[in-house]
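Lab notebook page, bench 4
Experiment: in silico fold of construct C2
Operator: M.H.
Input chain length: 256 residues
Purpose: comparison with the prior construct
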Amino acid sequence: MNLTLRVWRQTGPSAPGRMVEYDARDISPDMSFLEMLDVVNERLMQQGQVPIAFDHDCREGICGACSLMINGVAHGPMAGTATCQLHMRSFSDGDVIKVEPWRARAFPVLRDLIVDRSALDHIVQAGGYITAPTGCAQDGNTILISKATVDTAMDAAQCIGCGACVAACPNGSASLFTASKLTHLGLLPQGQPERYRRALRMVTQMDIEHFGGCTLYGECQDACPKQISIDTITRMNRDFLRASLTAGRGAVAESD
């Protein structure tokens, strides 16, 4: 395959950026999108040019590092697929492919296709954990949980924190990310003691990080490589409302 890439190049956070065109020649359809970028970078370095900077790590659709807008779509044209799992056979010979970084106020560009996603870490640090002692691994089987609850919690726990939901949202909202973290902890018995305080703290931090508000457009769930439903946002809003209404009267009630 022979392709034309139009890639966003930016040397630093305060530097101006621009789209630069590159030829991607003799690309195997079986390559992943990141492998294709590796080939392009190797050729750039052989020519004495600066390679394209982009994030990557596990390349197995688990870590969420492969944050790219491909032809205006987070992670590219394949639904439920991270960029590292997107193969070049999804494109046609002669295609022009535009590659950009995540575009959101909370994700400043560091260089080329790399953005600072530490704002997501700050949301988790605000309350996305369980502080109560829960015993060793084997103790998890001592509390019976219904299959429906387990399935819902596990669906939400699939979130890999890539930020595609933010990049796809017209408002730049991190509601799907935050809601997935709240849902998978809030449904489990071990997560109940801090359930409402957790919602209050994480949603408050989300606002502090300058993410936009959620108006349920639905682009977030379409862009999510793990196809997490916006139903989790409804659950988050309910818990946050309850926490907000009761926080002023002292301790938040932690029973549902």
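Observations: The radius of gyration is 21 Å. The first helix runs from residue 33 to 46.
Next step: discuss at group meeting.
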